[in-house]
Specification:
The complex is a heterotetramer, with 2 copies of chain A and 2 copies of chain B.
Chain A lengths: L1 E3 H15 L3 E5 L15 H5 L4 E3 L4 H13 L3 E5 L10 H8 L2 H5 L6 E6 L14 H4 L6 E3 L4 H13 L4 E6 L7 E3 L13 E4 L4 E5 L3 H14 L4 E5 L2 E3 L3 H11 L2 E8 L4 H12 L9 E5 L8 H7 L3 H13 L1
Parallel strand pairs in A: 2-3, 2-4, 4-5, 5-7, 6-7, 10-11, 10-13, 13-14
Antiparallel strand pairs in A: 1-8, 6-12, 9-11
Chain B lengths: L9 H10 L4 H25 L17 H7 L7 E3 L6 H5 L4 H8 L33 H14 L6 E6 L6 H12 L4 E7 L2 E2 L2 E2 H4 L16 E5 L3 H16 L5 E6 L17 H9 L2 H11 L5 H24 L23
Parallel strand pairs in B: 1-2, 2-3, 3-7, 6-7
Antiparallel strand pairs in B: 4-5
Classes of the chains: A alpha/beta, B alpha/beta.
The complex binds thiamine diphosphate (2 copies) and magnesium ion (MG) (2 copies).
Chain lengths: 323, 347, 347, 323
């Protein structure tokens, strides 16, 4: 059946809640209202107040309570209404959740869901891509699905994972992406990238909403005879280095594409690994394409200029292919 | 920027008000600002938003207009406002023209943020209004710091910070008030308790009956006031600001009210029991003020109708102005991240 | 891990205690745990630290021993403890041997964290003790979540969270208690109000007289108790835990006490007025308990001296054990970041 | 006169407070106690309670209040007792302070001082190097001085800067580093790296305490005839790309060295810039040396294994020089 990216996540959660009575939800407006984006719509009715908890407006308490419940053997899924507010729970995430296992062997199997990303004119506080705030913190896993198939498989894997997982859902994909996905249970492994498209001339390594920009660009480039390979990271931390390196060893050229701002973004980490471990295979500079180093502006012309798009990718790819 | 209309400075009003009981002139000022707020927000939420002319989300203060107006008119121009997302009237009180508000909501350069941010995320330091960020209650410690600075500089001024019932659950709310109380800074805390935070009702937000019940835990005074009675709010705010100006530290006002709309323009608010809408519709703060104006013969219906007509005309003009205001040029994208652009940034 | 000594399970004690007034046996258990905590911490702070055998900082609970002991002995084994950094006795009550504490402070594999973390940053889930992180009050929402889980699972158990006066200023403290109160989870909140947070005295920390003044703002009961009177603490904690177990939600106990030491071993605490040391030395909770034991003829001096001698011997042995415990091998560095090491991590 | 790194910072602050009555301090235990590390010792006595404010234990309120005071024209210096606790103020920093100028033109001239870094057996919560949490957030400046000279010059520049500056002071340098520095007023520009040592065979790009590790390694390598150039970044965000690229264009080989953990650290960003903009000059892989991706362990043998040291640098540098 064809479902949206949003519906895929919803089903993944629903199935896990059916499967495991220890899975429960907490967050703001997730119960009666079904969540700001309606991911949890119908869950309160079906699973009851015990398992679908509308909390006060307190991100730090939401994450903290999720941690505490997970230490007692439950499997909480905490929702941040927008990913931007995850900053309010930063200490709980990077210092409490991330470090328990290392420090004293206590597992913290929580999932923090966070709708992220721009393209919806949300402005500086409803559009951020905060993955890099976390993709540096040992102990955390950071997942950014791009497809409906992966969104369902990864949310299920995240719920079953015995480590804290931050699950960034791209808001602009919620209703835009529709796919036929298998009915019923499957998971997608956390920590594994996916070869989205085979190619020979250059690799675009990307994740999240930018996968679609990469595909658009690759289609255009194909018409010009440039064969693009696309790697969809899916998990941005810890990185699936092998898949990235294998692609670059094959094509010898790499473009790193993300929607998050350039400096300090995921692209830097990937570039570093390529430049260290596939140096001999490189036939051109490692190119990064990302949003510029500014907050995410609100007004459409500014936001459009801010977000990477296929035209920008095509231009750089052409240059790199010719290099 | 042009003032909304030629109004006297709030300080002049305040002085007069100090000398007297609520009077016709003050009541008419209440009426003007509350009606203007209502009209501008109706235009945004019910017309422009539906016409697709608004960029992004819309949060309005319908039914809560008495709060920013009753509180805001107690301020001197050098007092600093930290509005919440439902306090539009504070901008008008500071002389910001509705044009700029419409332009703000449309993402135009005529908005207070030139399109960099949207809706109520706006401020103007030259008029002592600080822009909120989205994170609820983040303004509270910032306002505490502003109040600290006002004291540091030896002024007689105060900071006013506005927040909802939901915001009181945030750690920043607690930390900010506690710091302000310990440092005895001149801070007026204004809670619009509209009984919902998005879809979350009070009983899921707090286990106490009143936000004001928290004030003793910070060693500060608080009072609960009818949030739909602009006179009562004004009086409470005067006590609050007098307390703060006297160097006695923060003072909290909890205004009991109701959000006569969804959380934002896209929210039908089905989670609100119907009887609450009906109950609170009867308590509408503008209708109530109107009744008082007529009863006390401070104005007749004709005057009020004229005033409203003027406001509508003003708003019509402001919408047109905003629609003529251009979208920002993409070349502005990189401006103003830092005072001086870093060497390695590319234009 | 071997238990500190063959003690009966706390639940057995509790049942007996429920049937009776404070009695000799319970009082001797108080004495044992308080003296053990004192002895272990003296050894760490005044001997091993000065000998350079301790790795990192040392925070002790001298003068505050009645709090973890009086509260801790009201718990059942399946109740969950979230100790602060001055609640060592909770570990002993849960049967953790002093050996592992010394090893922990010396960075040895025999410590509860195998050298990964230090001092009071330790926990043991098999004994229902959750390790603090440094950030004060971060445990409060986590404990709220643990209590929520205990309720979710339909147990009769409660979580106990301990914190200082300074920690009450943190946003997490507020958010955690508020969530716990709204959700009516079985949480016992224990404040050790020792009047200082590092060098910061109460009047710079809060503008209210008592931490307990904040409880009404969360709609929860609170009581203030003499933090140097282990009997009073025990009684208050019993009321608290009974309340929580009965499904009535969180309950706060504020224990007024004094930190009879610097903030940590390197702090001479010159900022504490001398008279306070003198005053509070007289109120030492162990001396006070000793007087009660003697007065009520629950024990004679000889018995107490023997008990103390046993503790000293136990501690001597534990120190030796810890010194023999090896440092962790560098090969352990990469262990336990995740359940399964990520593919790209290098050994 | 010879002063410690700690004393250099102290003097920098002191002089700025003498110079500008709008400069004031707030933080935990900074007044009566003079700060956990005694950076502000004597300041309460000299400048009084109005300008040296002992706050409650509330990092978010400390930073928030600093922001508010700065909006009113003051120049607050906020102290985090340990850099690790800066996570508690994350939202105020990344969402309030960083974005005010961009959003509505309001300057936020605050300095957040944060003692960071390991090597003192502080364990997971008293040893972190949190610079990468911020070196991705447009609007912030992130400074990590390595020398006493720079520490004084940079703290003064930070105080005068009209943007929010996070000033990471490396705890292990506080009393270990002593230098003769000029008396009186000077500043060091934020955003400018410093060529610490000229060399021809390879460049080590580093900052903070690792400067001394680089120097040690360079000394040892010099004896083997390997000539090392050292770049001390001083500011890690925004980066002084030109100085980095100039050095790599000269030596053709780069080692990026930092104490912070590897993945998502500053090294990635630098590697990416080199691999994109100096690709043609590279004669070998870009090598990163950093702490492994774990929390910072407490026990000495673990911490020693965790921290990068000269031996590790020498080994990699030898390999790279021969490449
Ligand atoms: C920290 C944070 N979490 C979540 C949100 C999303 N959100 C926006 S407004 C709102 C409800 C606010 O309720 P309240 O404080 O009562 O103000 P009201 O809208 O009722 O005036 C929520 C949950 C937010 N803005 N900030
Ligand atoms: C969030 C945070 N900020 C600062 C510190 C540094 N610090 C450690 S203990 C302490 C004082 C704690 O005071 P209190 O809560 O009263 O506990 P006490 O030590 O008095 O038992 C401080 C400031 C910290 N641990 N966490
Ligand atoms: Mg509300
Ligand atoms: Mg204390």
């Amino acid at each position: 059946m064809e479902v949206t990216y949003l519906e895929a996540i919803r089903r993944g959660i629903w199935e896990e809640m059916e499967r495991d009575p220890n899975v429960f939800l907490l967050g703001e407006d997730i119960g009666v209202y079904g969540g700001a984006f309606k991911i949890t719509a119908g869950m309160l009715e079906h699973f009851g107040e015990r398992r679908v908890i509308d909390t006060p407006l307190s991100e730090s308490a939401i994450v903290g309570a999720a941690i505490g419940a997970s230490l007692m053997g439950l499997r909480p899924i905490a929702e941040m209404q927008f990913a931007d507010f995850i900053s309010c729970a930063y200490d709980q995430i990077v210092n409490f959740a991330a470090k328990c296992r290392y420090r004293w062997g206590a597992a913290v199997p929580i999932v923090i869901r966070a709708p992220s990303g721009g393209g919806i004119h949300g402005g500086p506080f409803h559009s951020q891509n905060p993955e890099a705030w976390f993709a540096h913190v040992p102990g955390l896993k950071v997942v950014c699905p791009a497809t409906a198939y992966d969104a369902k498989g990864l949310i299920k894997a995240a719920i079953r994972d015995n480590d804290p997982v931050i699950f960034f859902e791209h808001k602009a994909l919620y209703r835009r992406i529709k796919e036929v996905i298998p009915d019923g249970d499957y998971t997608v492994p956390i920590g594994k990238a996916r070869l989205d498209r085979q190619g020979t001339d250059l690799s675009i390594i990307t994740y999240g909403a930018m996968l679609y920009v990469a595909r658009d660009a690759a289609d255009q480039l194909a018409e010009e005879g440039i064969s693009v390979e696309i790697v969809d990271l899916r998990t941005v931390f810890p990185l699936d280095e092998e898949t990235v390196l294998a692609s670059v060893r094959k094509t010898s050229k790499a473009i790193l594409l993300h929607e998050d701002t350039l400096s300090g973004g995921i692209g830097g980490e990937i570039a570093a690994r390529i430049a260290e471990k596939a140096f001999e295979y490189l036939d051109g500079p490692i190119v990064r394409i990302a949003a510029p180093d500014t907050p995410i502006p609100f007004s459409p012309p500014l936001e459009e200029a801010f977000l990477p798009n296929a035209a920008k990718v095509v231009e750089k790819a052409r240059w790199l292919a010719r290099y | 920027m042009a003032a909304a209309r030629p109004v006297e400075l709030p300080s002049a009003v305040l002085e007069r008000a100090e000398r007297s009981e609520p009077n016709a002139e003050l009541a008419l000022r209440f009426f003007y600002y509350m009606s203007l707020m209502r009209e501008v927000e109706e235009r945004i939420e019910r017309k422009l938003y539906r016409q697709g002319k608004i960029v992004g989300g819309v949060y309005v203060g319908r039914g809560q207009e008495a709060i920013p107006v009753g509180v805001g008119l107690t301020a001197e121009p050098e007092d600093v406002f930290f509005p919440s997302h439902r306090d539009l009237a504070l901008f008008f009180i500071r002389g910001i023209h509705p044009r700029h508000i419409f332009a703000q909501y449309m993402g135009r350069v005529g908005g207070l943020t030139r399109g960099k941010d949207g809706n109520m995320h706006m401020g103007d330091l030259s008029r002592n209004i600080v822009a909120i960020i989205s994170a609820m209650a983040a303004s509270v410690p910032v306002a505490a710091g502003a109040a600290l600075a006002l004291k540091y500089k030896g002024t007689r001024n105060v900071a006013y910070v506005f927040f909802g019932d939901g915001a009181t659950s945030r750690g920043d709310w607690h930390e900010g008030i506690n710091l302000a109380a310990v440092q005895k800074v001149p801070l007026v805390l204004v809670c619009n308790n509209n009984q919902y935070a998005y879809s979350t009702p009070l009983e899921k937000q707090m286990a106490c009956a009143h936000v004001a019940d928290r004030a003793p835990g910070y060693g500060i005074p608080a009072e609960i006031v009818d949030g739909n009675d602009v006179f009562a709010i004004y009086e409470a705010a005067r006590r609050a600001v007098a307390h703060a100006r006297a160097g006695l530290g923060p003072y909290m006002i909890e205004c009991k009210t109701f959000r006569m709309t969804g959380h934002s323009a896209h929210d039908a608010a089905d989670y609100v029991p119907k009887h609450l809408w009906e109950e609170w519709a009867k308590k509408d703060p503008i209708l109530r003020l109107e009744r008082t104006l007529l009863e006390r013969q401070w104005a007749d219906s004709k005057t009020l109708e004229e005033l409203r007509a003027n406001i509508r005309a003003e708003v019509d003009e402001a919408v047109e102005w905003a629609e003529r205001s251009p979208f920002p040029d993409p070349s502005e994208l990189l401006d103003n991240v830092y005072e001086t652009p870093p060497a390695s940034s590319e234009k």
